[in-house]
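Good morning C.,

I know you're traveling, so I'll keep this short. The sequence:
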Amino acid sequence: MNNETPTALVTGGSRGIGRAIAQTLARDGFQVILTYVSRPEEAEAVVASIAEAGGQARACKLNVGDAQAVADFFAAEIKDKVNLAVLVNNAGITKDGFLVRMKDEDFDAVMNVNLRGAFVCTREAAKIMSKKRFGRIVNISSVVGQMGNAGQVNYASAKAALLGLTKSCAKELAARNITVNAVAPGFIETDMTASLSDEVRAEYAKVIPLRRMGSAQEVADAVAFLASDRASYITGQVLAVNGGMYC
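The tokens, ready to paste straight into the viewer:
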């Protein structure tokens, strides 16, 4: 990788929505650095697919829930090494359970990765982008952050808080020509939803006006738009990619 071509950093880019985002941004001409926590073979498969399509990518192991690891990663792999133009905070975990049975550690773990991880990555990216007076930051929230969901108090709380982070950072960073937006996917066909029964899928379809689950590519296209020059006057916004599903 060189330090001239615009580079996109996609956290949690080894599968699902993150994989589609990494591949789409690579097709749009960005060098892509994607992070993963486990399953390095999946991350390398994404890198290989991007290379086969004529793009350039690299996979790096990173737990965004570890603030020091994030700071060390930006110092070693990003600052003065690449031309960071885009950050996509996609990394996330779930530890579902009903409120009265949810353990403190399960609530904290989800908040730490899904919210604090995005905060730390945004903070480190903003330091670099501010000096260059340019940047695009896209946070991946969720429809459950807008409407809530039984059994996901921790996940919905983190995704809702991510919207507040997005709007606040947008106001702080606008003067540096850095836009900060969020994409809030609805029910999307991913590894996380692959195990749902046909009955559950049918119930979800009933509350989605378009009567189907979305694809990871449809989310990736929304992210690519917000990362592009076509969205240069859009900041602090939440783009819902949910088939019309609202609370």
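Safe travels,
E.
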